[in-house]
Write a structure and sequence with these properties.
Layout (H helix, E strand, L loop, with lengths): L1 E6 L2 E6 L4 H9 L3 H23 L2 H18 L10 H21 L16 H19 L3 H12 L4 H8 L3 H26 L1
Helix pairs in contact: 1-2, 2-3, 2-4, 3-4, 5-8, 6-7, 6-8, 7-8
């Protein structure tokens, strides 16, 4: 039983009674009519399934497209009778949906939820991390040149003469910047500790 089907301005004969397995065999032979017949037959169901699973039509279309790509890849090796094609097709589509749902749940968060750390010394590590955070915050509040001097000397471990050269100033000017920066840092960190007690 055949009917005429119009595709993008041309006509093509399409067999209505072909089984999924027969269409797969034709797809494996790069038969364009079989590809179009399979898409026409399965696309609406795949999109409905994926839309219900994901709640997003655009994502559902992406899932359907990936499912069809897998059909094309599987067609040459498909063995009729080993598995029901529709069952396999739905499993593929569902797996793709679950992959997308997992990725949604795995979106990075700014802060991880608090969990107790049972390691020995965990409390000391937390205190050190908190001190480091306070130091970073205090450092960010320094004037730019003082911050630059501290970073070059303590974090980059440059000598006074190398740091002064990088900054384009004399060693005396660098030492003056360092002195003022250390005073401000001590003052700021002292205030933070007072506020915590």
């Amino acid at each position: 039983m055949c009917r005429q089907k119009v595709w993008r301005g041309g006509t093509r004969r399409q067999s209505v009674g072909e089984t999924d397995e027969r269409l797969l065999a034709l797809i494996a032979q790069n038969n364009a009519a079989a590809v179009e017949a399979m898409v026409e037959r399965k696309l609406p169901r795949l999109i409905r399934l994926a839309t219900r699973m994901l709640g997003d039509r655009g994502e559902a279309e992406d899932v359907a497209q990936e499912t069809f790509l897998r059909i094309w890849r599987a067609a040459p090796g498909w063995r009729a009778g080993e598995a029901k094609f529709d069952t396999w097709l739905h499993r593929v589509a569902l797996n793709l949906c679950y992959d997308r749902l997992r990725r949604r749940r795995e979106t990075p968060v700014a802060e991880l939820p608090d969990r107790p750390d049972e390691r020995p010394g965990a409390e000391a590590d937390m205190l050190a991390a908190d001190d480091q955070h306070q130091l970073q915050r205090a450092l960010a509040e320094l004037p730019e040149r003082q911050r630059e001097a501290i970073v070059l000397q303590y974090y980059q471990e440059l000598s006074n003469s190398d740091a002064a050269e990088v900054m384009g100033i004399s060693i005396e000017a660098l030492e003056s910047l360092l002195s003022r920066a250390r005073r401000q840092l001590r003052s700021r960190l002292g205030r933070d500790r007072d506020e915590m007690t």
